[in-house]
Amino acid sequence: MEFIDAVLHYGFLQKALLTSVMVGIICGVIGCFIILRGMSLMGDAISHAVLPGVAISYMFGINFFFGAVLSGILTAVGIGFVSQNSRIKHDTSIGIMFTSAFAAGIIVITMLKSSTDLYHILFGNVLAVRASDMWITLGISLVVLIAVYLFYKELLVTSFDETMGAAYGLPVRLIHYFLMMLLTLVTVASLQTVGIVLVVAMLITPAATAYLLTERLWVMIFLAAGLGSVAAIVGLYFSFTYNLASGATIVMAATALFVLAFLFSPKHGLLWKTLKTRRKRASLT
Amino acid sequence: MHHKAISIQNLHVSYYGDEAVRDVSLAVEPGNLVGIIGPNGAGKSTFLKAMLGLIPRDKGDVEILGKPVKEVRKQIAYVPQRNDIDWDFPITVRDAVLLGTYPRLKLFRRPGKKERQWAMECLRRVGMEEFSHRQIGELSGGQQQRVFLARALAQQAEVFFLDEPFVGVDVSSEETIVKILKELCWQGKTVIVVHHDLSKANDYFHQLILLNKELIGFGAVSDVFQTDIIAKAYQGQFAFMKEMGV
């Protein structure tokens, strides 16, 4: 109750709440495609890879949005190039490229002698969200949601059966990089809320929870968006009430929802599976 | 004007210089059911993917319906190997078949009532309409293959390519699939099937492409299905030959 009261009274908390809910929604939506394409590690990689872009943008005093998108896309291209042109497997290539991008980012930031900024970028500081950050997040959210709506067909086909898509003439490579670009945008939007280190949790956990609850992609997308925003609200509540890092509390809330689905999902939950097995075995004796 | 369904000239494909398909030339007339057979590692799937323009070729031309593949993609339906598919994907049987209508839908257009009815009709043809609301992973291997055939039917294509459609498929599904493929050919469509098993080749296909990196034989089944030609393709793998009884 105190929390609701505070939300009604404090502008910074309203901004924090709106921003984290938007982040919860778009992370959930993009996360569905990321996990269905088996690209969870790629999600982790791209989120870390925006760091040098953010740092260099700071250095030149431009909006970190541009630098982040550029370094995210460059890393995605680099990962593809290394794994396609050597015997290095895809996950290994991801490991090499994103850690080096991340390391480069840390070096640039230390050169700028701004360790507080580094801390905030890495772990998020949602209570310090400025109005301009909120508008950037809103803009990114609209772009991401409209893009997914318009290209739903193409994203569905290439996630489910890429070869079929290529066979009827879809530019599958382009669609892959387009998704990587959306992923970078989502990461940038999440910087303030959960921070680079934990973005991947917001991408994967709500989507994975939804995956356990439905057999239809569009339902999964809506569920993931809903679960992401619930996690954002619950997390923010704990962050505010107990003065804890917002990124960490939001991620823990998402994890709690996942555990519930893992145990109690009507079709894939551990509980029902165990009960069904027991009942079957009992019927045989 | 009369066009060959498929015409291939001097096709070469390699993986970083390792030859997978060597100098294949052939032409298939429309209305044929053609089997691509050959031992494991003979480059059958590679050959199929090269025909479809899915992997780069080193040399050679492929024309489908008298045109480069790029221009006739919407006339082609491709059914992948079953183990290329993620069967846990959150998609129902009907929605999987509905994907077959996508190539003809314009950008930003969603499948509507007409497309959904057509998808159901294609499901009916393969005898799977009562499973339309199941998730695809809940089906048996044969049922899954029939669903993917329904998806290909939904594409209303002229040329069909199937990669190993009979692997892990029960007898009655196999019969259904073969029956539908034969029907397609009567309607003047062309069907190309990668098939690893020699035993049924005789009953199923009109023509055979016998492949072991290079083209060993091509023509009517009765012409290609000769002991000496098969032996050349399966060098030394005589267990196969006893099985098929040549």
TrEMBL record, chain A:
Primary location class: membrane
Residues passing through the membrane, by range: 12-36, 56-82, 94-114, 134-152, 164-188, 194-213, 218-238, 244-264
Membrane topology designation: Multi-pass membrane protein
One Pfam family matching this protein: ABC-3
UniProt keywords, alphabetically: Membrane, Transmembrane, Transmembrane helix, Transport
InterPro entries listed in its UniProt record: ABC_BtuC-like, ABC_TroCD
GO aspect biological process, one term: cellular response to iron ion
Location(s), subcellular: Cell membrane; Membrane
Domain of life assignment: Bacteria
Cellular component, GO annotation: ATP-binding cassette (ABC) transporter complex
The keyword Transmembrane helix belongs to this UniProt entry's keyword annotation: yes
Keyword Transport set for record: yes
Stated family: Belongs to the ABC-3 integral membrane protein family.
Protein's job: This protein is probably a component of a manganese permease, a binding protein-dependent, ATP-driven transport system.
Name of the molecule in the record: Manganese transport system membrane protein MntC
The species this protein was found in: Halobacillus salinus
TrEMBL record, chain B:
Keywords: ATP-binding, Nucleotide-binding, Transport
Signal peptide limits: none
Stretches assigned to coiled coil: none
SUPFAM superfamilies associated with the record: P-loop containing nucleoside triphosphate hydrolases (SSF52540)
Pfam families documented for this protein: ABC_tran
Domain ABC transporter: 6-238
UniProt-listed InterPro entries: AAA+_ATPase (IPR003593), ABC_transporter-like_ATP-bd (IPR003439), ABC_transporter-like_CS (IPR017871), Metal_Ion_Import_ABC (IPR050153), P-loop_NTPase (IPR027417)
GO MF assignments: ATP binding; ATP hydrolysis activity
Family: Belongs to the ABC transporter superfamily.
UniProt name for this protein: Metal ABC transporter ATP-binding protein
Organism of this sequence: Halobacillus salinus
Lineage of producing organism: Bacteria, Bacillati, Bacillota, Bacilli, Bacillales
